[in-house]
Amino acid sequence: MPSQERQQLSFYRRTQRVVIAHEADIFCRGLHSLLATSEGFEVLAEVNSCTALLEIVATTTVDTVLIDCMLADGDCIELTRRLNEAPSPPHVVLLASRINDELLLRSLLNGASGYLTKDTPGHQVLACLEGLRKGELALTPPVASAAIRLLTWECYRLAATLSATTSSTGPAIAMDQTQAGSPQHRSEPASAESRRPAALPHLTEQEQKILRLLRLGLSNKQIAARLSISPYTVGKHVQHILRKLGASNRTQAASHTSFEGPQVEDEQ
């Protein structure tokens, strides 16, 4: 048997070494007890801070870390990034109270291997963590659906940004090169103001909130639930946004904000 296959079988057979990072002792104990019901897991430690978790990972071989996204002494996204920079990075699975689109997207883009909500049934938690052995992400079906939607929109946004940037800067670069020998262009370089992208048309605070959620791929109904307004009201705001941006549809509005004007602040 080739050595690679032996190593693979050895990995599948060995116990998954886990560290739980959560501020609530009762939650740690409950999760520890759940993992103890399966022979495939060994809980190495329970910690209540980012600092303690980093110390353990630096000195111990850890396969998987389960991290509460609300740890007080650090940011879970930054922690995920640092753990993935370790010489032998563990699987990072975030634990959250609900599906937060922005947190889910950022965690996956920064190398997280999973995202579980705290109301996930125990058998699904075990199944998701077992899936890590096979190269799968630790995501339940609802979270996986949200992740696919968010990542699809992020790919579209990046493609739209690249396309728009290329089409808008290409001719300008060519023109600068053509006119580089002109005396007035040598003596009168373009000002910072003239090189600055055009600002977005004025949007109200509510329109900015809706625009931010549009960029995450949310439907009118989902936006209405997030902002506690009616879908009809959301629809009217979307019409105003499209008119102000000169966009013919939601997709154009989302791509417009990806390369022009300031980022809209995240919803808390």
Structure description:
The chain is of the alpha/beta class and 268 residues long. The protein has two domains: 145 residues, Response regulator (Rossmann fold), CATH 3.40.50.2300; 70 residues, Orthogonal Bundle (Arc Repressor Mutant, subunit A). It has 13 helices and six strands. A six-stranded parallel beta sheet has the order 2-1-3-4-5-6, with helices on both faces. Helix 2 links the parallel strand 1 and strand 2. Helix 10 packs across helix 13 and helix 11 packs across helix 12. The longest helix is centred in the middle third of the chain and has 38 residues. The chain is elongated, with a radius of gyration of 24 Å. The chain starts with a helix and ends in an 11-residue tail after the last helix. The N terminus and C terminus are likely disordered.
